[in-house]
Amino acid sequence: MPLIILDRDGVINEDSDAYIKSVSEWHPIAGSIEAIAKLSRAGYSVVIATNQSGINRGFFSLDELNAMHNKMRELVEVAGGSIDGIYFCPHRPEEGCTCRKPATGLLDAISEDWGNIEGVAFIGDSLKDLLLAEKKHCQPILVQTGKGRKTQSQLENTDLNLSQLRIFADLAAAVTSILANNTKA
Questions:
Q1: Cα–Cα–Cα angle for 150, 152, 158, nearest 5°?
Q2: Is 49 helix (H, G, I), strand (E, B) or coil?
Q3: Strands of the 121-124 sheet, one edge to the other
Q4: Of 7, 15, 125, 129, which residue is the catalytic one?
Q5: HSE (side-chain half, CA atoms, 13 Å) at 125
Q6: Residues 130-144: pLDDT tens digits?
Q7: Nearest one of 29, 35, 5 to 106, comparing CA atoms
Q8: Cβ distance 111 to 85 under 8 Å?
Q9: Residues 51, 86 contacting (CB under 8 angstroms)
Q10: CA gap 12, 21 in Å, rounded
Q11: Is there a catalytic annotation at residue 7?
Q12: Which of 50, 54, 71, 176 has a CA between 20 and 30 Å from the CA of residue 19?
């Protein structure tokens, strides 16, 4: 089964500079839940790689994060799909962990569980997502939701290989293209 990796905040759900701290604050971006379900129905395994430093900042608990993820999973299941794995980093940037994107720990864990991820699509809205995708030889895909438009305006000032980058309005548009092109993700 082909694999696809998604960031969470700004790709699947609305993002906030004040953090998404509770189930009541977690709201899917229009079309994102259905897009994940489409991937599942097309035979893709969908995994999420997300920085969640709000845990170590004391903004929300691990139980609350799990409740947000359960809500996300349930919505996808109702739409006819599934999320096959969620990998998250609870650390603040200054903690110097190896799992906080753009460090490779989350994708290393995904690779350990799912096998070789080279060429796998990684859909994100931040420069961290794109840099990590490039480090691990994944297909970087930028969505313009969340921080995506700001990220897009910063691309020319990075060392990112822009020839490999694909840009879409949102997750639904990215998934439509992936499925239409039968791209290995």
A1: 105
A2: strand
A3: 85-89, 45-51, 3-6, 121-124, 139-143, 166-168
A4: 7
A5: 24
A6: 999 999 999 999 999
A7: 5
A8: no
A9: no
A10: 15
A11: yes
A12: 176
